[in-house]
């Protein structure tokens, strides 16, 4: 008579493989939990965080994000960003500047106001400033004039530039070239350009900041291709969420299967539980660094550590 009770799989090789796979997954998750990351750009002054900023910051810490630079995009936003650094000392830092969208709001006293804000040790960069000829919310000639003034200010105070550029590469290069002999270090934030543009910025000594934009990049010569070709040296790479924007939709059909498989359960848990298209959070940064590492075919621990060291060097974080 056959035994009616199901017997466990007694194949020792299958059992060993299962145990091995489980241990590997546990190690991967432990590694993920040990990331030491810096988010060089998060818009935490956005009204979407007004009710639960404490929780947002705490989740970022839990995810392994140790420092966040709160982006200043207008005079008022820059003041608020600095105020937040006092509420979360050692965790939040700020930048001060006027975004190209708001260049039309520039007045004669803006230079001195931004300079005063930049005099605070918690304010570690000038920006977000630059050129955006994609949307043109401010006239292009005004954008260029205001951008040049902020580059001049960065040279004067000796703080790094946090740059924005969309469809304005040539003019960006031209304006920065005027200051090449005295310009402080700079990062091209949320880079979405071509390989030729990336190489030009690298040739000029800039760092390249990458976000969750990776998920929707479908260009043959865009960010994904740049990473796959290894065009960005690790010592010039920085990572950011640009929260609440640039949500990394890792379920997107444009992302190859091997990239999705490289994402750890722990990182995905933060992304899927707390982040949406409507409101991204800094706790999504582990997923972003894992995507970048997978496209680069580099160990994620290596990429994570390199980008953190770069951020410390560039912005002088303690």
Automatic annotation (TrEMBL):
Coiled coil: none annotated. One of its GO terms (molecular function) is metal ion binding. It comes from the Eukaryota. A divalent metal cation 2 binds at residues 164, 189. SUPFAM superfamilies: Metallo-dependent hydrolases (SSF51556). Pfam families: TatD_DNase. InterPro entries: DNase_TatD-rel_CS, Metal_Hydrolase, TatD-like, TatD-type_Hydrolase. GO terms for cellular component: cytosol. Keywords: Cytoplasm, Exonuclease, Hydrolase, Magnesium, Metal-binding, Nuclease. A divalent metal cation 1 binds at residues 128, 242. Belongs to the metallo-dependent hydrolases superfamily. TatD-type hydrolase family. Deoxyribonuclease which catalyzes (in vitro) the decatenation of kinetoplast DNA, which are circular DNA catenated to each other, producing linear DNA molecules. Plays an important role in chromosomal segregation and cell cycle progression during eye development probably via its DNA decatenation activity. This is Deoxyribonuclease TATDN1.
């Amino acid at each position: 008579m056959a035994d009616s009770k199901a017997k466990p799989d007694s194949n020792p090789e299958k059992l060993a493989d299962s145990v091995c796979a489980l241990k590997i997954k546990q190690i991967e998750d432990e590694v993920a939990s040990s990331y030491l990351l810096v988010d060089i750009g998060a818009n935490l002054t956005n009204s979407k965080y007004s009710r639960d900023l404490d929780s947002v910051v705490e989740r970022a810490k839990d995810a392994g994000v140790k420092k966040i630079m709160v982006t200043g995009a207008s005079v008022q936003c820059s003041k608020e960003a600095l105020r937040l650094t006092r509420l979360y000392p050692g965790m939040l830092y700020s930048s001060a500047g006027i975004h190209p969208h708001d260049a039309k709001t520039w007045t004669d006293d803006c230079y001195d106001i931004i300079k005063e804000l930049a005099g605070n040790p918690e304010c570690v960069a000038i920006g977000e400033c630059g050129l955006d000829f994609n949307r043109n919310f401010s006239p292009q000639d005004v954008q260029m004039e205001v951008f040049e003034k902020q580059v001049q200010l960065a040279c004067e105070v000796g703080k790094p530039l946090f740059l924005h550029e969309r469809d304005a590469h040539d003019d960006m290069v031209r304006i920065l070239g005027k200051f090449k002999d005295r310009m402080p270090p700079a990062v091209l934030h949320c880079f979405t350009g071509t390989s030729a543009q990336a190489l030009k910025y690298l040739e000029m000594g800039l760092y390249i900041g990458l976000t969750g934009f990776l998920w929707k990049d479908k260009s043959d010569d865009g960010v994904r291709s740049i990473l796959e070709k290894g065009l960005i040296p690790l010592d010039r790479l920085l990572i950011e969420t640009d929260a609440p924007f640039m949500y990394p939709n890792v379920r997107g059909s444009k992302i190859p299967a091997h990239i999705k498989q490289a994402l750890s359960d722990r990182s995905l848990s933060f992304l899927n539980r707390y982040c949406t298209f409507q409101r991204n959070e800094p706790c999504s940064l582990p997923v972003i660094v894992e995507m970048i590492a997978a496209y680069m075919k580099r160990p994620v621990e290596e990429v994570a550590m390199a980008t953190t060291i770069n951020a410390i060097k560039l912005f002088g974080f303690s």
